[in-house]
Design goal:
The structure is a homotetramer. By secondary structure, the first copy, chain A, is mainly alpha-helical. Chain A has a single domain, classed as Fumarase C, Chain A, domain 2 (Up-down Bundle). Chain A contains 15 helices and six strands. In chain A, the strands form three sheets. A two-stranded antiparallel ribbon of chain A has the order 1-2. In chain A, strands 3-4 form a two-stranded parallel sheet. In chain A, helix 2 crosses helix 3, helix 9 packs parallel to helix 11 and helix 10 packs antiparallel against helix 11. Chains in contact: A-B, A-C, A-D, B-C, B-D, C-D. At the A-D interface, strand 1, strand 2, helix 6, helix 7 and helix 8 of A face strand 1, strand 2, helix 6, helix 7 and helix 8 of D.
Chain lengths: 416, 416, 416, 416
Amino acid sequence: MTDLFWPGDERAGSLMSDAALLEAMARVESVWLDALVDRALAPESARADLTGLVTAGDVEAIARDAESGGNPVIPLVTLLRSRAGGEAARWLHRGLTSQDVLDTALVLTLCDVLSRVLDELRSQVIALTILAERHVWTPMVGRTLTQHAVPTTFGTVVSTWLDGVIDAAELVVDARTLLPAQLGGAVGTLAATAELATLHGLADPDGVTAETALTAGRALGLRVHRPWHTARVPLTRAADALVTCTDAWGHVAGDVATLSRTEIGELAELSGGGRGGSSTMPHKQNPVLSVLVRRAALAAPGLGATMHTASATAGDQRPDGPWHAEWATLRTLGRRAVVAGSQTTELLQGLRVDTARMAATLEASAHDVLAERRGVADLLGDGHDSDPDPTTYTGMTGDIVAGAVERARTFLEENA
Amino acid sequence: MTDLFWPGDERAGSLMSDAALLEAMARVESVWLDALVDRALAPESARADLTGLVTAGDVEAIARDAESGGNPVIPLVTLLRSRAGGEAARWLHRGLTSQDVLDTALVLTLCDVLSRVLDELRSQVIALTILAERHVWTPMVGRTLTQHAVPTTFGTVVSTWLDGVIDAAELVVDARTLLPAQLGGAVGTLAATAELATLHGLADPDGVTAETALTAGRALGLRVHRPWHTARVPLTRAADALVTCTDAWGHVAGDVATLSRTEIGELAELSGGGRGGSSTMPHKQNPVLSVLVRRAALAAPGLGATMHTASATAGDQRPDGPWHAEWATLRTLGRRAVVAGSQTTELLQGLRVDTARMAATLEASAHDVLAERRGVADLLGDGHDSDPDPTTYTGMTGDIVAGAVERARTFLEENA
Amino acid sequence: MTDLFWPGDERAGSLMSDAALLEAMARVESVWLDALVDRALAPESARADLTGLVTAGDVEAIARDAESGGNPVIPLVTLLRSRAGGEAARWLHRGLTSQDVLDTALVLTLCDVLSRVLDELRSQVIALTILAERHVWTPMVGRTLTQHAVPTTFGTVVSTWLDGVIDAAELVVDARTLLPAQLGGAVGTLAATAELATLHGLADPDGVTAETALTAGRALGLRVHRPWHTARVPLTRAADALVTCTDAWGHVAGDVATLSRTEIGELAELSGGGRGGSSTMPHKQNPVLSVLVRRAALAAPGLGATMHTASATAGDQRPDGPWHAEWATLRTLGRRAVVAGSQTTELLQGLRVDTARMAATLEASAHDVLAERRGVADLLGDGHDSDPDPTTYTGMTGDIVAGAVERARTFLEENA
Amino acid sequence: MTDLFWPGDERAGSLMSDAALLEAMARVESVWLDALVDRALAPESARADLTGLVTAGDVEAIARDAESGGNPVIPLVTLLRSRAGGEAARWLHRGLTSQDVLDTALVLTLCDVLSRVLDELRSQVIALTILAERHVWTPMVGRTLTQHAVPTTFGTVVSTWLDGVIDAAELVVDARTLLPAQLGGAVGTLAATAELATLHGLADPDGVTAETALTAGRALGLRVHRPWHTARVPLTRAADALVTCTDAWGHVAGDVATLSRTEIGELAELSGGGRGGSSTMPHKQNPVLSVLVRRAALAAPGLGATMHTASATAGDQRPDGPWHAEWATLRTLGRRAVVAGSQTTELLQGLRVDTARMAATLEASAHDVLAERRGVADLLGDGHDSDPDPTTYTGMTGDIVAGAVERARTFLEENA
C-alpha cells in the first residue's frame, strides 16, 4: 500500500489493509465452522477451508456491498456461501453475528500491528541502550523552558527517552495479551449455538457451546472471554497503548528536531540517499524522520479520543454508530503507529551525536549553568572554583543511566 | 476507491484520492510555469502542459519516494523534469517551494470536496423543506431528557434540523470562498521569482512577482492572498465547517435512529434492495444510513481537533511535523463528510413518517403532556378541558416552520 | 477568581464565573417577566427586578441543589419565587424552560468573553502593525523544518502572525454577531406563552408570542432566531473561533519561544518584576508568557472537539447529556482564551527584538541561504557575487508587510 | 467546592482542589527537607514541619504570583522561606526544582482521586453483582442497531456492564500502583543534592543522593523511579484509566437512559427528593443521574487527548507549555471522574427494574425475535413451536452471569 497523503505508509506493508481484514474475517468464519464440526454441532460434510474462497480481488465488491447492511460481513457471508456450496454453505456463520466476525478479525489484524510495534520497540530499546551507555559521560547543557539551565549528559537524556519507550512497550504487551476473541452471537448469549446443541440432543448444551467458543478461540490464538459487544475496553486499551507509543516517539523526535536546529547542531539524522533533501535548497539537511514521527504523534491523540467516545456511547446489544466508527479509526492509528515506530527505529539507529558541539555549547554557558552549584557552595560557605568545569556537575548520571540500562535488559529478556 | 473499514466510502469517488492530489499538484506546477512564461520570467520555449505528464500510475512511485524528503513534491518535480525535458525541465517549479505545491493542491482538492458537500447540503435543504411543509401540523410528542414532555409537531422538529443544516452550509460557503492559493517560495517572500524578474532586468520586479502569483491563482480559480505557510486558518476554517456539517447530520441521524426504535416506530428509513438487513435476523430493518452517518459524526471532532493542534504548533517558516499531519487528516475528514452528506441526503429523501403512530403515542400521553397547559390555565383561574386534545397545544409551530422554510428558500436562491 | 492549576487565570476576572452565570440567569428571568408584562400576558403587578434578588452568595446553594434536576435553573426559580413573592412569584419563568434560561445566560456570558477577546485581538493587531512596520527591512534567516533556508525579514514573519490574528478575529466577530437568545419553551414551540395569549383573548396569539420573544431578546441585546435547543451551531461556531484564536496565539508564542532559545536569542520577552525567573537558577530568563500561551493552545482543541461531539449527539427536543457537557467546556475554553489573549497582548507589546543577532546569524549562514539565489542565477547563466549579501534576497517583503498592515488598518477601522 | 457549570461537582469534595494542591506541595517540600536532614545533607536545625506554614488562605496570593514564573512553586517557596525563617528557610527546596514539587504534589492528589474512584468502582461491582444474580433469568428483548433482535436477559446485560467496570478498575489499580514521585532537580540529575553530599565530604555521594530520594518517596508513600520530567507516561496512564472509567459509566448510563424512555420503561432511576424533576412539567421523571454521567463520558475523551498531546510534545529537560497544560486538564478529568463515579454508584444502587414490562415487550415481539431460532430449526429440519416462548431462547445466560460474578468476587477479594 502507498498513501500520497502519509509518506512512509508503505512501511506498514499490508498490516490492517483491506485484504488483511478480508482474510481475517474469512479465517474467523472458517475456524468457527471447524469448531461447529469438531463439537458435532455441524456435520462432517460441512467442513471446508473457507479462507481459500476469497482473495484480495474480492475486496472491492464486498466493500461496495457492505454499505447496505452497514458492515462487510453480510456480503462476505453471501459470497462464501455461493462459493462453498453444499453443506458448508448451509452451516457456515451459524451461531455467529456480524459483530463477532468483524470484531474478531479486527482483533487479529490489531494483534499483528501490536506485534510489529513491539518488534520496533525492542529494536529501539537496543539502540537506546547503546546510546545511553556510549554517552553516559558525554556532557551537554540541560535546557528547561527553552533556556540553558544546568549541565547534564546525553546519556541521561537518552535514559529518559528509554524509560518512555519501555513504559509504552509495557502497555503494548498488556494490550496484546488481553485481546479477546468476540464470540457471542446475535446479542451476546450464543443462543443459536446452544440451540443447535439442544436440537442435536447433546448432553450439557451450555458446556458444548462454551467448548465451541474455546475451540475457535484457541485456533485463532486468542483469549476467549465473555462476549464484549458493547464493553469496548479491549480496543481502547490497545488504542491507548498505541498513542502512548507515538507519545514516546514524538518526545524523542521533538528533542532530535530541536537539537538538530542549525544554531544547536548537537544531533543530526543520518543523511544519504537523498534523505532530508529539499526541492530547492541543496545545502539543507532536514531532520525528516523526526518531522514525520512528530506528525504521527500530533495526529494520534485525536484518534485515541474517538475510540473512547465510541466506547462511552456504545449502547444496547450492538451500538448504532459508535461501533462502526472504531474500525477505520483503529486501522489508521495502527498503521501510523507502525510507520512511526519504524521511522523512530531508523532514526535512533542512525543518530549522529556531535559531542564536540555539545561540549562547546556547555563550555560557552559554563558560568550561567553553574549558578545552582554556586548557590549550594554558598549555602555551605564554600568558595567557588575560579575556573569552573561544568562537566563535573552532572549529579547521579552514572546511576541513572545504569538503572535505565538495567531496566532495558530486563525488558528485552522478558520480551525476547 | 473502496474501503472495507468505512462502508460507503465509494460515495466520495475520487475526491481527495491519491490520484486527485497528484493531478492537482501537476496542475499547480503547470499553471505556475505558464505564469512564469506569461510574465516573461521564463522563455516561451519552456511552456508545457505538465498535467499530461503524470497519471494515476505514477502514484505508487511518488508515494514511495515521498518519504525521503518528507513530501511528495520532491519526487514529483524530479519525475516532471525527466519527462518534460528541455527548457520546461529547467524552468518548472522555479520560484516555488514544496509547500506551495502541496498546499495549493490540497486546497484545490478540498475545494472539490466543499463543492460536493454543498451539493448535498442543497439537496438536503430541499428535502427538509418538503418535510417541514408537509408535516407542519403533524402532531407528535416532544421529548426532553428521554421523557415525554409536551406536544410538538414533526414540522417543528424538521425545522430545527433545517436550521442546523443551513447553519453548517453557511460555514461551508464561507470556507470555500476564502480558500487561497499558497504561493510564497521557500520562506514566503517569493524571493526567487523576484530575483528572476530582477535578473531579467524587468521594471518593478515586485510588481511582476505579484502579477505572476495573481495570474497563477486566477488560472486555478483561487483567491491569492499573502503566503500563509504557518498561518493555517484557511484549513482549520474548512475543517471546522466540515465538522459542523457532520454535527448537523449526526443530529438528524440520531433523531431518526431514536424515532426508529422498535418501541417508538415514528420514523423509518426507506428499505428495499437489502438495505438495513441483518446477516441472521430476517425480520430486522435497521436504520443503517443513520447508523453510518452517526459513525461519521462521532469520528469527525477528533480530526478537527488535530487540524487545530497542527495550526497551533506551526512554527518557523515551515512547520516540522504539524504541516505533515494536516494532509491525511483533512483528506479523511473531507471524504467522510462527502460520504455522510450523501447518506444524509438519501436518508432524508426516503424518510418514512408514520403520522398515525405519532398521533397514537401523543394521545396515549395526552394527560401528562398537557400538564404545562393546565399550569397556565390554573394561573389564569381557568378550568381545564375534561377531554384534552394535545394536538392543539403546539404553540408557534406555524410561524416556526414558515420561518425556517423562508430561510431555506433564501439560502437556495443565494446558492443556486 | 484564582486557579492554582492555571496560573494567570485571574486575568479573566469574573468572566463566565459562577457569579456571572447566576447574574445572567436572573437577568434572563427578569427580562422575560418584563416582556410578559409589556405584552399584556402577565399583570402589571407581576413586574419585578429579579436581578436584585440573587447575589454571589447564593451560588453555593444553587449549585448544590442543581444536581437534583440536572441544571441550576430549577433551584434558581425556586429561590426567585420565594424571594419575589406575590404576583411576580406566580408569573416568573412562565413560558420558559430551563434550557432557555441557561442557554441564554450562557450566550450572554460568552458574549462578554468574545468582546473581551476582541479587545485583546485589536490590541494585538496594533502591536503587530507597529512591529511589522518597524521591522519591514530587518533581515533574518528564514527557517524551514528547523533548518536555515533562505533570508527573510522579521517584518515578513510578523505579517504572517498578523494575518493569523486577523483571520481569527474575523471569526470572533462573526460568532459574536450571530449569538442568539434561546427562547423556545419546553420543546421549542413557545406553547405556554401562546396559550397565555389565547387565554387572555388577545388577537393574533402567535404574533403576541413572537413579539414577546423579540422584546426579551432586544432587552438582552441578542438576536432572536427560532429556538435552537438541539441545533448547537451558535455554540460550536463560537468555540471554533476561540480555538482559532488560541491557534493564532500559539503560533506566535511558539515562534517566540524558539527564537528566544539561548542559542538563537533573536527575540526575548520583556523581563522585570520577577517575570520569567526560576526557583533555583538566577541567570534564567524564561519566555514564560510564551510558555503559558502555548499551554492554552495545546489544551484548546480537545475542548473544541467536545463541543462538536455534544452538538453531534444532541437529540430529541433536549439532549440527555450532550447539553450538560457544553457548559463547563465552554466556560473553560472562554476563560482560557481570555487569559491567553491577554498574555499574548502583553507578550507582543513588550517583545524585544535583537536585530544585531538576527543580522549576525544570517551573515554566518550567508553562503548556504543564498543557494537558491545562485540556482536562479545559474539558470540565466549569470555569475554569482563573490561576496553575497543575504539581506538583499528578501523578495516581496515590502509588499507583504504593506499588504498586511493595510489589512490591519481596515480591520481596526471596521471594528473600532 | 461547588461549580454552577458542573452540577454535582461537590461530590468530589476537596479532591484536587487548589487547597489540596497547596497542601500537597507543602508536604513535598517538608518531606524533602526532612530527608535532607535525615541523610545529614542539611543540619538538624533546619528541620521544620512546613505543612503547617501554609493554609487555604494562602491559595489566592500564591495563585496570583504563580504567573510570573509560570508555576506556583516559586511563590510557595518564597512564602515558606519567609514564614519558616532560620535554617529551615535556608535549606528548604535545596536540590529540588519546581517541577519536582509540582509533579509530586500532582501525583499525590491524583492518588487520592484514584483511590476514591476505586472506592466507587468497588461499590459498583457489588451493586452490579447483586443485579446480575437477581436478574440472571429475567428475560428481556435484546436490541441491536436500535431494533429488537433476539431475546436476552437483564442479567446478561448487567454482566456486560460489570465486565466494563472491572476492566476499567484494573487499569485504575495499575495506574495508581505505578504513580512515582518526581525527584530530579533542575534537569533530572539531582546534581545539587549530590553536590551537597560531596561538599559535606560524605562517602558515596551518589548513594547518599539516591537514599535521600528514596527516603522522601517512602515518606510520601510513592514509588521512586528515575526522574521523568519529560517522559509523561505515569500521567497519561492515569488519565487513560480515568477516561476508561467514564467510558464504562457512560455505557451503563446510556443503556439506562434508553431503557428509561417513556416508550420503553424497563428501567428507572430511583426518584424522590426532587431528583429528576422539571421546572415546568410536574409529571416528568428524568433519568438525571444517567444524563449527568453521560455528560462526563462525552467530555472526558478530549481531556485524555490533551494529556497525550502534552506528553507527545514534551521537550528539552522541561517542556515549554505541554507540562503546564497538564495540571488543570488532569484536575478537571480527576474531579469529574469522581463525580461521575459517585453518580453511577448511586444510579446502580437505586436502579428500578420493571421485569413485567421487560417480559411484556419481549412477548409482543416474540415472533420476530425467534426468527433466528426458527432458522436453526429449519437447518436441522425440525418443526417450529406453534406457540413460541422467547424466554427459553437465552443461550449461555447462566454461564455468562456466573462467570462475570465470579470475576467480580475475585476482583473484590484482591482489592479489598
